[in-house]
Amino acid sequence: QEFGEISIKDIDQVAKTSFPLCMRHLFEKVKEDHHLKHGGRMQLGLFLKGVGLKLDDALAFWKAEFAPKVSAERFDKEYAYNIRHNYGREGKRTDYTPYSCQKIISVTPGIGDHHGCPYRHFSEENLRAALVRMGVSSRAVEDVMDKVLNRHYQLACTLTFEAVHGSSCDAGINHPNQYFIDSQRVLQS
Ligand code: SF4
Hints:
The protein has 189 residues and is mainly alpha-helical. 65% of the residues lie in helices and 0% in strands.
């Protein structure tokens, strides 16, 4: 089964059901703050490309989310180039690939940054609250936190996947886009 494309109108729904926590967090932040710093735009933007959001929809998505803070003119001048660049339409025309878990886990987010892996970069309190919001049961939260304490961040994410989908994920999570595809597979089966 292929999940080749996703349109803007479906994005809120699939963000709730099928985005891993790192991307849910960025997605919620851009909706809340109407802005994301560069690291967050890259991490979420490339993920959305991998999910199947086409370039025109990506431009429309970011422009609409930023609109309360960024004029259309400024958006076109300061942000559109980078989005087209990620889609290989500018510069060296490299088609950039979405980041793997390993890459996301290894970054060091600065103050005001929302990218990175929540299992690694959130405080314990924030992580627990985020897991509860995702619908993870209190027992499963303890199992997830146990993995986090032992620095097994991808296993923590895998346990979260299993808890919210009620379905096992034997291969383990190693890429946010894999999380998405596996989730859609479970939900559509
Ligand atoms: Fe995202 Fe990977 Fe961290 Fe899960 S383990 S939250 S998919 S970076």
